[in-house]
Amino acid sequence: MAEILAVDEAMERALALLESGDVVAIPTETVYGLAGDATNGIGVARIFEAKGRPRFNPLIAHVADMAMAERVALFDPLSRKLALAFWPGPLTLVLPQRPGNDIHPLVTAGLDTIALRMPRGFGGDLIARLGRPLAAPSANSSGRISATTAQAVAADLGARIKLVVDGGATPVGLESTIVKAEGGKLRLLRPGGIAAQEIEAVVGMELLRGADAGVEAPGMLASHYAPDAAVRLNAGTVGEGEALLAFGKRRAEGWQKAAACLNLSEAGDLREAASNLFAHMQELDRSGARTIAVEPVPFDGLGEAINDRLSRAAAPRDNSLPPT
Ligand code: TXA
Ligand code: MG
């Protein structure tokens, strides 16, 4: 069962868990977050595992200050204005990633943008001490409502995590507002803790509403990383010129002639496989092979989300259709 520690006694224990690649539930001003080191793939995989999320959707990366935010993402003038006005606070900005940042690709599900937020209170202090951003979705299991007290987190996730930091009831009580700059305009991707009108008052323009056709919206995975190469699942053999995405110790027949080969997890560890998934697919794609053959990955635990992502990558693509 998770230990529950008050904010004034939890800092060192929380840091130790994060440093070791584990997760910690923390209070923020909006809702409780299930936090992991955003630069550590195993830590991020553990977030999905503890939540039991059947999919890898992109997570919000939380930063301690503007310097950390700028190391991770590229700010346009409008986004910078919003950050200055509302951070720390319940506003999340979707921004282009700064190339070469050390955010693990599982945080962004392979996207080249990143959702960033600067939380107030314990979360901000913890990130400053860690010196690295924290990935943190709401601290509830998949399909449940977000937790606004440490007791609610413990009741839901207590058997799967080691520490819940108790900061009392969260003042805002609902998730952050998500906004994305689009060529001089701003789009509201998710309403939340800051009213759209407050944002409009700061920037002096109306927010665009609804998902831009074909562009990412929370919960819509259409724009998620899809390789240029075709993807062939459950491969028992490797064809001439195919790249191979392997899993475990037993190789598909003909693996020696693969144009390139990377193993998600030699040991058959699904947590390790999740943390390698996006980077390996991208690297095999860059090899120029026309097809990536993928060895079978079991469906238990994180395997469900891994298989979900793989089957999306393998699905026929028709860019003229709107996302569903
Ligand atoms: O208040 C909050 O925002 C809480 C606290 C813990 O900070 N966090 C939270 O995270 O609600 P989560 O993971 O439950 O929600 C993240 C949302 C999802 O709707 C996701 O689709 C969207 O952010 N998102 C993340 N990265 C994105 C991106 N690059 N582009 C568009 N949407 C993105
Ligand atoms: Mg949530």
List keywords for this structure.
324 residues; alpha/beta; 8-stranded mixed beta sheet; 4-stranded parallel beta sheet; 9 helices; 29% helix; binds threonylcarbamoyladenylate; binds magnesium ion
Give a verbal description of the structure:
The chain has 324 residues and is α/β, with parallel strands linked by helices. The protein is 29% helix and 18% strand. The protein is built from 9 helices and 14 strands. It has helices at 7-19, 41-51, 66-72, 77-86, 122-130, 150-157, 196-203, 270-286, 303-314, and strands at residues 3-6, 24-26, 33-37, 60-62, 91-96, 113-117, 134-135, 163-166, 177-182, 185-190, 230-232, 243-246, 260-263, 291-294. It has an 8-stranded mixed beta sheet with strand order 2-3-7-4-6-5-9-10, sandwiched between helices. It has a 4-stranded parallel beta sheet with strand order 11-14-12-13, covered by helices on one side. Strand 9 (177-182) and strand 10 (185-190) form a beta hairpin. Helix 1 packs parallel to helix 5 (122-130). The radius of gyration is 20 Å and the shape is globular. Residues 213-223 and 320-324 have low confidence and may be disordered. The structure holds threonylcarbamoyladenylate and magnesium ion (MG). Threonylcarbamoyladenylate (TXA) is lined by residues 28, 30-31, 33, 57-60, 92, 94, 108, 111, 113-115, 117, 136-138, 175-176, 178, 189-190, 216, 218-219.
Topology overview:
Blueprint: E1 3-6, H1 7-19, E2 24-26, E3 33-37, H2 41-51, E4 60-62, H3 66-72, H4 77-86, E5 91-96, E6 113-117, H5 122-130, E7 134-135, H6 150-157, E8 163-166, E9 177-182, E10 185-190, H7 196-203, E11 230-232, E12 243-246, E13 260-263, H8 270-286, E14 291-294, H9 303-314
Parallel strand pairs: 1-8, 4-6, 5-9, 11-14, 12-13, 12-14
Antiparallel strand pairs: 2-3, 3-7, 4-7, 5-6, 9-10
Helix pairs in contact: 1-5, 2-8
Bound molecules: threonylcarbamoyladenylate and magnesium ion.
Magnesium ion (MG) binds at residues 137-138, 146.
